[in-house]
Amino acid sequence: MTSAATARTIVGVIGNVISFILFLSPVPTFLKIWKAKSVQSFKPDPYVATVLNCAMWVFYGMPFVHPDSILVVTINGFGLLLELGYVAVFFLYSDWPKRRKIIFVLLVELVFFAVIVFVTLTFLHGTKSRSMLVGIVCIVFNILMYASPLTVMKRVIKTQSVRYMPLTLSLANFANGLVWAAYALIKFDPYLLVPNGLGALSGLVQLILYATFYRTTKWDEDGSTQSEIQLQNHDRASSNQV
C-alpha cells in the first residue's frame, strides 16, 4: 500500500514538471506582446478558456471534493495564476473592445464556477457524489479543448505538412497525458483517466503524423496566420494539462 502511494506521488511530481513546462509554452508569445506593446493579431481565447479549466481542476482536487489529490491542486493552482497573468498582459495591451470581451467572458466563467461550487457544497454530501459532478464537468471541458489539436491534425493530413505541429509540443503532450493517466490508474480515478488517456492518444497520433509527413513538409511555405498558429498550439498545450 505504501509503495503504491509512493509510486503515485513520484508519478504525480513528474506530471507536475511536464505540465509546468507546458504551461510556460506561451511565454514567447507574451514576450512579443510586451516588446511590441500591442497584442498584434494574437487572440485571448485560449488563455481565458484555460483559466476556467484550471479553476475547475483545482476545485476537483480539494480534499472535500476528491481527497488525496494535492498534486492536481498544485499544478493547476500554478496554471491558474499563470493563465491569469497571461490574460492580464493581454488585457493591458488590448483596445477597449477586446478588453470588454475579456471582462464579459471572465464574468461568465466566474458565475459558472460559483454555481458549480454552490451546487456541489450545498446539495451534494460526500466526496463520491462531489467528485462525480465536478469530475464530469472537468472531462467535458478537456474534451472541448481537444477541438484545436484535432484541427491541427486535420490540417497536417490535408496539407501533408507538419510545419505548424511542433515535434516538441507533440512529445510533451503525449508524455503529459501518459504520466497523468498512469497517476490515475495507480489509485483509480476515472475523471483523471479519461481526459489524460485521450490526451496520450492524441499525442501519439500527432507523433505518428509527424513521422508520416515530415519528409513531405515544405518548411519555407507560408501557412497559417500568426494568430491561428498561436491559438492552436496553446490549445494543444492546454488540452491535456491536469
From TrEMBL:
Keywords: Membrane, Repeat, Sugar transport, Transmembrane, Transmembrane helix, Transport. It holds the Pfam family MtN3_slv. It is found in: Cell membrane; Endomembrane system. One of its GO terms (cellular component) is plasma membrane. Its main location: membrane. It comes from the Eukaryota. The keyword Protease does not apply. Gene3D superfamilies: 1.20.1280.290. The chain crosses the membrane at residues 12-34, 46-64, 70-93, 102-126, 132-152, 164-186, 192-213. It is a multi-pass membrane protein. The keyword Thylakoid does not apply. One of its GO terms (biological process) is protein homooligomerization. Belongs to the SWEET sugar transporter family. Mediates both low-affinity uptake and efflux of sugar across the membrane. This is Bidirectional sugar transporter SWEET. It comes from Penstemon smallii.
